[in-house]
Amino acid sequence: MKILVIGGSYFFGRVFVMLASKEHEITVVNRGTYSLAEFGVQQIKGDRRDEGVWRSLEGNFDVIVDFCAYEPGDIARVLDNLTGKVRQYIFISTVDVYERGSGGRRGEDAPLETRIFPGEAGAYIAGKVALEREVREKCAEKGIHWTVLRPAILYGPFNYAPRESVYIRMMVQQHVLPRITDSKGEFQFVYVKDAAGAVLRCLLNEKAYGQAYNLCQDQVMTYGLLAEELKKAADVDVTVLSMTAEEAAERNVPLPFPVTQEESELYANDRSRQELGISYTGISEGMMKTYRAFKGVYVQA
Q1: pTM higher than the cut 0.90
Q2: May I ask the CATH architecture of the domain 160-187+220-264+281-300?
Q3: 158, 173, 189, 220: which is deepest, by most CB within 10 A?
Q4: CA-based Rg of the chain, rounded to a whole angstrom?
Q5: What is the CATH code for 2-153+189-215?
Q6: Element (H or E) spanning 61, and its range?
């Protein structure tokens, strides 16, 4: 299968390329910040906003997997300028597209957010909502099948965003682990290899045509549970430092997950389990693998 990957060198996309390159012919278009040469793929350096990048690609592609569309027009620009044929477009969206504050676990048919929130987070959500509409409309116009994947909070090896890796670094280098005592926030993770496997299961899968899927673990997490899982994963002596969210902010300890109940949003994964056959990695197993991967990095740092 010939697959065009947009993005694909950082975290989620990188893990997908690592897996997909074992069986498929992969062309990656991105800014070239990280090399993918070791996986035997063709990597083309370019800015997705440059129409000439897409015109320069020759031949047909079975599937496009788009990891880095954020602004309206990003998908249309690709499909309007490619000269070859495409059978399926897989757009990586986010569970953040759902209307906030409606309660319960959101299924894929729940309404999407129509309000515009301030700041970078608001722009990110508005962009993803607009692009979900764009992928449906542009693919209908071009006769291309589309699939949307909405991952929850991704974690795992290669995640250098200031999330779980920050706490692992503190454990490995400082032998301390923050535990937030007053947080009421709840959230869901998805292990990155599970998310990459979901993309693989969607490739030219007729069941996935015209569908959106939430990608998330069943277990609802809190800061307290996260600290417990990280402590279990540790193979070094670690002192747990109990602190409030306010104290964490004063100490410049990152709080990358929802802290309050008002910030919390939860999601259902029934459709991805039933239609794609995904079995989600449990948090203990996933965090153990994540800890081991990052320990090797931070011991040498």
Answers
A1: yes
A2: Alpha-Beta Complex (3.90)
A3: 189
A4: 20
A5: 3.40.50.720
A6: strand 61-66
